[in-house]
Design brief:
The complex is a heterodimer. Chain A is mainly alpha-helical. Chain A is 68% helix and 4% strand. In chain A, helix 11 crosses helix 14, helix 15 packs parallel to helix 19 and helix 16 runs parallel beside helix 18. The two termini of chain A are 22 Å apart. About 2% of the residues of chain A have low confidence. Chain B has a six-stranded mixed sheet with strand order 5-6-7-3-8-9, with helices on both faces. In chain B, strands 11-12-10-13 form a four-stranded antiparallel sheet, covered by helices on one side. Chain B has a three-stranded antiparallel sheet with strand order 2-1-4, covered by helices on one side. The mean pLDDT of chain B is 85. Classes of the chains: A mainly alpha, B alpha/beta. Chains A and B meet through helix 1, helix 11 and helix 12 of A and strand 5, helix 2 and helix 4 of B.
Chain lengths: 496, 302
């Protein structure tokens, strides 16, 4: 055991002395640190500029502006309601729409919200009861802003509209703010129903749907009035909508998020296992090839047995791999506890399973045993080859065989599919660790976890015995490479 | 160290065939043979790197195994080191694998590097050292544990003259400290300078085991005589050839003795028979000649 630890320590030290190790180790923390910053740059916080040229009398423009503001206020109400529910702040406004949940916010709710002073008033009331430590409510700008129409465009001849709109959509002055979309409502809109949309890029489907909806309502209202309905009745008919009750899980847990949350950590572990195996496995391979290539294997074998050497290398590499996974998870935990915002909201519940000893033990078991099992392939390849180039020849098919099904299975787990194929992969030992880890979050029957664990353990023990023999036989072999028949024979016989 | 009827077969090749010999404690033992004679295979079996097909081996009173590692130093023919490890770390690593504590291994390693003129390179990684320096580090790693048995496989191959002298000094130092040294070589001069006893190996079989004198004696003696008449008729003489003239009728003869006949026997015969003789010089056979004689020219060339 002493020699195994000495060899393991040397392997460990050699790998962590590599620059590539530190680069790899720091990739994830750096991504976590810079992710929110990058997100800030990537996010388009500015509202999309919409200009309306309404020559039909102005009712359409008014209805569209109203709709945009309604959508924004409804969105604000929804988010505020979730914030209040999550942080248990309903006492700030008994009876206020934002203190309620499980419902669609109607126009009456919006009216009440506006009448009570809107978001600023709600935030003042919340601030009064908010305990320290509760994060601030994060406001978001509206998606669309209706901008004033320049008189030149408002008066432009319909035939010259495109020419007049171009300087607004694509201003020559780079610093000038471009209008994203111009909606042109013809004077005879009520009878012809025709309108034009000019945009500086493809308009978003959401904007199209909203414009379509508002214009349709306007046409319907006009039609009902032409059929003799009073203006009020016609307008009311246009507003008819079902009262939809919506049940959602509480923020931070519950149905949809729970699935995502529970899936996140084991799935992440599956990814991390694959990543760290690919990296530390290749480092281990490099170490084994170095020992053969630099002809120092005989010196080592004079002091330690091939089995001690194998176990030592394995232990050292597993330690490196586990260190990487541990550091990455630790970074996630630190990010969850030390940061605010969306990243923390996402990670905090994701690391929740770590509190459960059973889940933790299952994940550690499949991580460690899976790691050992796959690493053994790298070790055997390293023992059979004299150069990294030669090793790559063996490595590529092995990696391909491992990674391709794993990539597919992760997609299947995420999309909730997989079916029989997923169950079959669960019991094929080389894919067992990945499959079980990936499935843990979405739910996997306990008997399947136990059976897959037992099979994986038996398979790894068999690997240790067979590849251990191959390792012993291959270490000092020189000259012509052994064929498949010889390799099988070597795996079956003990001594060298 | 003792090998008793040891054989090792690799597939169809019999690398070592019925090999028996013993190395006494404290002696320097040469393992001589051409390439493929079975020297490395035998040493690997002694170290338990590979196992014999048949026969038995005793090392330091025990069966071969890693438990002997603390008492053994080994320098393989094919040498290499971890390129990214420092010289000192390398020595300490192998010292620890031989059962030393980190402190002892470091102390001993620093002492060896000092002795080998590498004190300033203790913290240099191997890839920054010259080949000669790396060879010294490897030698230091082999002897860091002050072994009782030092096994050296072709230790002089690839060494420059300075390092050859250093290695010879280390071998003498080890034996002076009471260690047993076994080294394989096909360079006879090293064996002649260092070995107490020798073993000649050819095609895996033992051809000779004994002292250098005994090895030389295995060749028929050759003498140079200054006499007035041909010694060809004397008992024990296989052949005589006149090689030079001296004045007053004396001639120089090169005499080849029959196997088993010695120069002393010939001198005794000359005195007894009144054979006129002015000079009698024995030409000692070189180890190289003995080697060729024992293993055959073809084997010696390999």
């Amino acid at each position: 055991m002493r020699n195994i630890l000495i060899v393991a320590l040397r392997e460990f030290k050699q790998i962590i002395a590599m620059r590539s190790f530190w680069l790899t180790l720091l990739i994830l923390p750096l991504a976590l640190a810079f992710g929110p910053v990058a997100q800030r740059f990537l996010d388009n916080d500015e509202a999309s500029q919409l200009m309306i040229v309404d020559r039909s009398g102005g009712a359409v423009a008014t209805a569209l502006a109203q709709r945009i503001d309604d959508d924004h206020q409804r969105n604000l109400l929804g988010r505020l309601s979730r914030y209040v529910r999550r942080h248990d702040l309903a006492a700030a406004g008994p009876g206020q729409p934002w203190a309620q949940h499980d419902r669609y916010f109607t126009d009456a709710d919006l009216a009440a919200f506006r009448a009570a002073g809107g978001l600023p008033a709600a935030l003042r009331r919340i601030e009064a009861v908010k305990p320290s430590g509760v994060p601030e409510f994060k406001q978001e700008p509206p998606d669309y802003a209706v901008v004033a129409t320049p008189p030149a465009l408002a008066a432009a001849d319909p035939a010259a509209l495109d020419a007049a709109a171009q300087p607004l959509l694509r201003p020559a002055d780079q610093a000038a703010k471009a209008v994203d979309t111009i909606l042109f409502i013809r004077a005879d809109f009520a009878s012809s129903g025709q309108a034009r949309l000019l945009a500086n890029s493809d308009p978003s489907p959401r904007l199209m749907a909203m414009v379509q909806d508002v214009l349709t309502r306007q046409l319907r209202t006009g039609f009902l009035r032409s059929q003799g309905l009073s203006p009020e009745a016609a307008a009311a008919a246009g507003q008819i909508a079902p009262a939809l009750a919506v049940s959602t899980p509480p923020p931070g847990g519950g149905l949809k998020e729970a699935m995502v949350v529970r899936s996140f950590l084991p799935l992440a572990a599956c990814y991390l296992l694959m990543m760290s195996l690919m990296l530390s496995g290749s480092w281990m391979l490099q170490g084994s090839v170095e020992e053969r290539g630099n002809k120092l294997i005989e010196t080592v074998l004079a002091c330690v047995s091939p089995e001690e050497l194998m176990y030592g290398k394995l232990l050292g590499t597993v330690a490196v791999g586990m260190l990487m996974i541990f550091v990455w998870i630790l970074c996630g935990v630190v990010a969850a506890t030390a940061t605010q915002g969306a990243i923390a909201d996402f990670i905090r519940p994701a690391v929740e399973p770590l509190r459960s000893p059973g889940t933790l033990a299952t994940m550690i078991f499949f991580l460690v045993v899976g790691y050992v099992s796959v690493s053994l392939f790298f070790l055997a390849i390293g023992a059979m080859t004299d150069s990294m180039r030669e090793a790559q020849g063996y490595l590529m098919p092995v990696m391909f065989a491992l990674i391709l099904p794993v990539t597919l299975l992760i997609q299947a787990v995420v999309s909730g599919g997989g079916g029989v194929a997923l169950t079959v992969l669960t019991f094929v030992p080389i894919w067992t660790p990945f499959t079980v880890l990936a499935r843990l979050g979405a739910g996997i029957p306990t008997w399947q976890v136990l059976l897959a664990g037992a099979l994986l353990l038996a398979w790894t023990a068999l690997q240790l015995a067979m590849l251990g023999r191959l390792f012993r036989h291959s270490l000092l072999a020189t000259g012509q490479k052994a064929g498949l028949k010889t390799l099988i024979e070597q795996m079956r016989t003990r001594g060298a | 160290m003792q090998l008793d009827r040891v054989a090792k077969r690799f597939d169809q090749t019999l690398a070592v065939d019925d090999l028996s010999f013993a190395v006494r404690e404290g002696e320097t033992f040469g393992f001589l043979g051409g390439n493929g004679a079975g020297k490395t295979t035998s040493l690997r079996m002694v170290l338990d790197i590979i196992r014999p097909t048949s026969g038995s081996i005793t090392v330091l009173g025990r069966a071969p195994g890693r438990e002997n590692a603390p008492l053994i130093g080994f320098l393989p023919e094919e040498r290499g080191l971890y390129r990214q490890m420092t010289a000192l770390d390398t020595i300490v690593y192998f010292g620890r694998l031989k059962g030393m504590t980190p402190g002892d291994a470091k102390r001993e390693g620093l002492g060896l590097l000092e002795r080998f003129g590498l004190a300033g390179n203790a913290r240099s990684t191997i890839d920054k050292l010259s080949k000669g320096m790396a060879q010294k580090v490897q030698l230091a790693a082999a002897v860091v544990n002050r072994p009782r048995l030092l096994l050296l496989d072709e230790p002089f191959s690839g060494l420059d003259p300075v390092n050859q002298t250093l290695l010879e000094d280390e071998i003498r130092r080890a034996t002076a400290d009471g260690a047993t040294v076994v080294f394989s070589t096909h360079v006879m001069q090293h064996a002649e300078r260092l070995c107490d006893r020798l073993l000649f190996l050819a095609k895996g079989r033992k051809r000779f085991e004994g002292t250098i004198d005994e090895a030389r004696d295995s060749l028929p003696a050759r003498l140079t005589l200054l006499s007035r008449q041909s010694p060809a008729g004397l008992a024990g003489v296989a052949s005589a050839r006149r090689v030079g003239e001296a004045k007053d009728g004396w001639g120089e003869w090169e005499v080849q003795m029959k196997a088993g006949a010695s120069a002393g026997d010939l001198l005794e015969r000359c005195i007894a028979e009144g054979f006129p003789l002015r000079r009698c010089e024995q030409q000692r056979a070189g180890l190289h000649d003995v080697f060729i004689h024992l293993v055959g020219p073809a084997e010696a060339r390999s």
